[in-house]
Amino acid sequence: MLPAPVLVVLLASSFIAPLVLLILLMKPYLRFLVRKGKVSEDLHKNPPTKVPEPVGPVLFLAAVAGELVAFAAFGTLVPVALVGAMSVAFAVGLADDLFVLGARTKPLLLVLAAAPLVVASVFQSDLFTPSLAFPILGATSEHFSIYTLLILVSFPVVANAFNMVDAFNGELSGFSILTSVALLSAIALHALATPGFALARVAAAMPLVAVSLGFYFFNKHPSKAFDGDSGSLMLGTMFAGLAITGGVEVAAIVAIMPAVLNSFYILSSVRGFVERRKMGGRPTLIGDDGRVYASEQPSAPVTLVRMILLDGPLHEEDLVRSVLALTSFSAGLSVLTSLMTWVL
Amino acid sequence: MRLLPIASIMVIAWLLMIAEVYAFFDLILNFAPPIHDIGSFTVLAILKVGLTLGLGVLWFLVMQGLAELYTASRLRSRTPTASS
After folding, report:
1. Distance (Å) from the alpha carbon of A299 to chain B's nearest alpha carbon
2. Chain B interface includes A311 (CB < 8 A)
3. How many helices (H) and strands (E) does chain A have?
4. For chain B, N or C: smaller number of CB within 10 Å?
5. Average pLDDT over residues A43-54
6. How far is A136 from chain B (nearest CA, A)?
7. Could you tell me which of A312, A319, A279 has the C-alpha nearest to residue A293?
């Protein structure tokens, strides 16, 4: 066991390295995207503005750097397995950014993100525990086959849930900061309550917080960068992988409750997986006053944002503040869930 | 105040999840011997799987019902907007 000050320095390194790398790379990469004409219209501005997209590659590189620092510092396979899963999701997202994949193709390909975790568990048997820990009741018995099935399902579900909250300036990046802090708290509480639970899992969660925080400075209103699917799917996959390797699946689901409900309402209102460009209308629209309104079209998908706007229109910043307030609330419920699981 | 109903939906989703976990552990798991111990699907084992799926369906139905209730209540109290 390393002395406490050394552990603190190692944990801090896995946070600082990705944050610094992201800040250093982002501005030249944004200039590169503009030179190449890779810009998208920000449809929630009146008139629409042009924003460089996708910056997923920078987020990916920064996250990988952070995981490599965690791997070098603690030497377990957790960060390596996470990099494998993130690479699959990043590749799927980048393919969607460049060529537009089908609505069913994307979730199917994202199932492959589970493969690195399952393969790594062959070389490191404690990579994840094939059981779920619930508040007060404790952990279920171990079922490798059922748990593996849950892992396969969880990656496309969580990655798509992140992708679906990526609609407004600062929405995904803010959401990712709040939920990753809740996830980090859950893993830290698990580590404190479980003797022998490797601190490496806490270190592996640091890059997600760092990348989300760094990205927020470029993504907040008015956005200077859009992540694209390569960024949102990668962040969602990283979140799912950390929840699995950290053994905090239940607290993780509670933290992302706004995204889970959002995905659930979208899928139930459009009746299945439909590519967003083929949905029967947009859930929101911009008024002449620059505020965001809920769509009146019955065929438009029901989203969390549309539900918030049923009470009346909002400026984009206030709308994102509302979404992040709900996310803070769910993050609080997640910390409560963690306390009920690991402390009480 | 705008967010209170949606935050309430989230609390209900959370409480329902914890309550369903209790139901799963205390009722369904004790309902019949574990399927992997029996080695075959008996009627009780199938009922056990069915009840577990039922908990999931119940969660989805409650969430759907709450969303529809919220939407209907908001649409009733709405005044025409600039975009409509």
Report:
1. 14
2. yes
3. 13, 6
4. N
5. 90
6. 9
7. A312
